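2024-03-11 09:14:02 INFO worker-7 job=invfold-0412 stage=load source=structure_tokens
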């Protein structure tokens, strides 16, 4: 259903306005999706470096995302020497208190795809990092070379980017996670990012 913008005192419709595009929402049981538009991507609004495309219904199904959210987009990296895509969850927000209620452990999966002509990934590790202000642990940091994923398949892949835990009793503080490649200064491109999927578990122990 279309939405019309009313911008004069007589209330007459002036122009078509697209319905809002969701950036994050709960999917099937135990899944929470955060699209690329809901993340902070360095230079993400500069089309010299990143381009945005709608996900097709087939791609949404491939990612196990409800195809009703067909206006969702993925980010295509043209080229950057500084790769940084992050998300901060404010656990005090009512939205997250409701979504995460009853869950204690959260696995972060990056929805990634490589173009045939992707470049700059060979021998250059990407850092996946998680910081949780509520817990006293040192967080999670892992360097991983994505070249093997690039060679593995031409389809969408889910790459493990760490996990975090939240105590049962009180959910507060902030959790920040992201993927980075800022050390080599090497130009790289041809990666597609459709955001992340959080896998929610009721127990803090690994299944």
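2024-03-11 09:14:09 INFO worker-7 stage=emit residues=207
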């Amino acid at each position: 259903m279309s939405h019309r913008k009313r911008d004069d005192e007589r209330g007459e419709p002036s122009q078509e306005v697209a319905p809002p595009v969701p950036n994050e929402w709960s999917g099937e049981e135990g899944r929470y999706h955060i699209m690329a538009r809901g993340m902070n991507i360095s230079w993400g609004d500069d089309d010299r470096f990143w381009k945005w495309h709608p996900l097709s219904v087939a791609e949404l199904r491939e990612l196990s995302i409800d195809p009703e959210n067909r206006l969702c987009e993925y980010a295509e990296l043209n080229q950057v020497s500084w790769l940084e895509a992050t998300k901060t969850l404010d656990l005090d927000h009512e939205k997250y208190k409701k979504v995460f209620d009853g869950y204690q452990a959260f696995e972060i999966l990056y929805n990634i795809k490589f173009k045939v002509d992707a470049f700059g990934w060979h021998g250059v590790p990407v850092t996946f990092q998680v910081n949780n202000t509520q817990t006293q642990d040192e967080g999670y940091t892992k360097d991983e070379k994505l070249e093997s994923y690039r060679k593995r398949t031409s389809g969408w892949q889910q790459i493990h980017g760490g996990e975090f835990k939240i105590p049962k009793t009180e959910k507060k503080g902030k959790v920040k996670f992201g993927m980075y490649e800022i050390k080599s200064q090497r130009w790289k491109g041809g990666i597609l990012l459709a955001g992340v999927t959080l896998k929610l578990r009721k127990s803090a122990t690994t299944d």
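2024-03-11 09:14:09 INFO worker-7 stage=report msg="Residues 57-62 form the longest helix (6 residues)."
2024-03-11 09:14:10 INFO worker-7 job finished
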